[in-house]
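Sequence design from tokenized structure. All designs in this work follow the same two-part layout: the structure record, then the generated sequence. An example of the structure record is given first.
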């Protein structure tokens, strides 16, 4: 294996454990937010009603996606820096091999049956949307069909996985920190500019989807990971106290309310959202004895977190609008609660235990990570 050295003549240092205990719990929270949003959204669309005044507070699937982004930026960068600290270099070949075996098999296990359902006329699935999903460019172009629409967020994460490790190798972690912060700020300004003065034709893609308009959450998570690696937990803990972590928890629903009711603050809250999310994630990592940290480490949440990638992929098939294709009547039954949840759990368990776990182990055998077997979600 060819390693690309990113040290400056320094000897490898001892490495901390790569497992960040609360992240599986946060993955569970994030995917449950997506599921609740889609299930309630489907119900309200059918009934043409509201659940209760302020029901938008629990319909925050988008916020769940940005929690996933923060986790990915924080986790992937932490793992890369741990490898540098332990071995003196980062193996890009090893990283990309592990990522490919972590992400592609489960995704193909979802996309291939989905494509067959489309060919058979059971669901409406334009081939163009299927191909865009396969190539991880689902977040560019028209919105398209429901069944692959959620893969916009995985496309953004894949773009981050592709370019960020190379930048970290080329720049080093200190310059990488400033690049991550600067690029995050530029992304925020670019997003605001595109909302007011669209610079791209409609076919390029809408603001909620494009990587160039949503990469800030991943980059800020990466920046936090670099700060932790460079200055240590003690330094971060002085600034990111349990009190600040609690404030971040309270800030998220406050920003959601502002988004809905105070349009003039929309750009400010959207700019602060990735910052607050990443600080909250790191706060629970640094203070595992906090009440919220202990809740996140409960076994049921950690189990859901480990299944979150397959849940993310497959939930779209069992939620959303009813189908009216000539051959798709049985899909209507598959979307009826709680039948849809039983089917979802069944296929997700197969995906995780028969596809994800064996391929993760294969990736670790072919390119052994510093801390194998822990926090290996794509998100």
């Amino acid at each position: 294996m060819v390693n690309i050295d990113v040290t400056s003549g320094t000897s490898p240092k001892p490495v901390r454990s790569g497992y960040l205990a609360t992240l599986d719990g946060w993955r569970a929270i994030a995917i449950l937010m997506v599921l609740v949003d889609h299930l309630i959204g489907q119900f309200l669309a059918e009934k043409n009603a509201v659940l209760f005044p302020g029901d938008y507070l629990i319909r925050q699937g988008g916020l769940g996606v940005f929690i996933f982004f923060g986790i990915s930026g924080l986790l992937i960068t932490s793992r890369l820096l741990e490898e540098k600290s332990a071995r003196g270099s980062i193996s890009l070949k090893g990283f990309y091999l592990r990522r490919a075996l972590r992400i592609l098999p489960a995704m193909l296990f979802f996309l291939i049956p989905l494509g067959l359902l489309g060919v058979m006329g059971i669901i409406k699935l334009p081939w163009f949307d299927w191909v865009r999903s396969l190539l991880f460019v689902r977040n560019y172009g028209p919105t398209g069909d429901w069944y692959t629409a959620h893969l916009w967020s995985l496309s953004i994460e894949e773009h981050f996985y592709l370019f960020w490790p190379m930048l970290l190798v080329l720049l080093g972690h200190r310059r990488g920190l400033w690049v991550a912060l600067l690029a995050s700020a530029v992304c925020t300004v670019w997003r605001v500019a595109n909302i007011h003065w669209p610079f791209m034709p409609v076919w390029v893609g809408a603001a909620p989807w494009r990587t160039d308009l949503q990469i800030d959450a991943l980059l800020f998570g990466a920046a936090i990971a670099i700060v932790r690696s460079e200055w240590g937990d003690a330094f971060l803990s002085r600034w990111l106290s349990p009190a600040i972590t609690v404030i971040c928890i309270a800030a998220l629903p406050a920003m959601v309310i502002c988004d809905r009711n105070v349009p003039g603050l929309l750009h400010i809250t959207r700019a602060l959202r990735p910052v607050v999310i990443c600080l909250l994630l790191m706060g629970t990592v640094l203070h595992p004895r906090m009440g919220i940290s202990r809740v996140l480490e409960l076994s049921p949440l950690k189990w859901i977190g480990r299944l979150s990638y397959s849940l993310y992929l497959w939930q779209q098939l069992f939620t959303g609008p009813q189908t009216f294709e000539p051959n798709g009547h049985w899909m209507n039954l598959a979307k009826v609660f709680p039948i849809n949840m039983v089917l979802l759990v069944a296929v997700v368990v197969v995906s995780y235990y028969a596809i994800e776990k064996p391929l993760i182990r294969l990736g670790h055998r072919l390119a052994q990570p510093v801390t194998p077997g822990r926090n290996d979600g794509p998100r």
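Residues 1-15 have pLDDT under 50 and may be disordered. We note this feature because it recurs in several other targets discussed in the main text.
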